[in-house]
């Protein structure tokens, strides 16, 4: 079974570092620095410039957008040590990964574990090249935190399923090419009656209705399935295995949401740097406001402690072969710290941290405001904090219900 395990190192670390530097010099245009749209999932995919297209294609050809994924499916096939070097050199160059989304964060790693060889060869290469956009068909109007209550039904029609039902809060559904979806194939068992299907979003019978927020953007959708034909080969795993596969995918989602990832990227520079840019400093270059200085120090101590914990968890998961229930711990802590960071940043920026549009605000300030507001959803995504508390209590701490 192909996994995200370490690949044999190719040459020395120094040689690989030089290879990465040469690649970046050739393919990452200086004008792309800082042009990564961290809120593309909210505001929709933007039109690629020629430089952005070249950068995405170059990363996709190397497989470096998914550096540790198996090379046979289009990934980079790098060891974790090499992936770390790649990340270090990209940060030095101000480069960002142009290949991401739900295909990379959630679906791809799950398919590598549970998919057939035919499914891996069909879907993984396009994810590695950033050519296909995926969305998630999980929540329903009466199946949110109680996800296993989902009712969208896939009726067995011999060589295909006929899917009817509704999903809601489908992030990016109006822009997606394909959907990984939990459906019911057996009404007699709540959990064992769920299966995992792959559905083309342009298939007849699929209707997407964007949900407009008060901010004017529509990152979420209602998705309706009316007699949608889905080939049997689009079933991942076996019938009735969907709950197991779906939970695994959520572990990948929680790991990616939690840590130094989404929310930190939205906000950009460090809190200390922002404070120095917007406030006064003393003769020694320290932030002049002692109360603010204490707040920042307290936050950065807790954030760096979390990063060390996340690193330790990553090493443990590498030894055990993948993500685990520890993802709930990381998700709970990481998203809360991300929200605290956003609040502190807005406080530092003062009136400049309250703009939504118009003159008088920089692009980064407007991105910060959007990141702050949108980040409120991060403690709900991938299972609310209350759900994570339950998982931690039962599966991490071993606490059982007493009757």
TrEMBL record:
Residues 240-397 form the Acyl-CoA dehydrogenase/oxidase C-terminal domain. Its cofactor is FAD. The keyword Flavoprotein applies. Residues 135-228 form the Acyl-CoA oxidase/dehydrogenase middle domain. Pfam families: Acyl-CoA_dh_1, Acyl-CoA_dh_M, Acyl-CoA_dh_N. It comes from the Bacteria. Keywords: FAD, Flavoprotein, Oxidoreductase. Residues 14-131 form the Acyl-CoA dehydrogenase/oxidase N-terminal domain. Belongs to the acyl-CoA dehydrogenase family. This is Acyl-CoA dehydrogenase family protein.
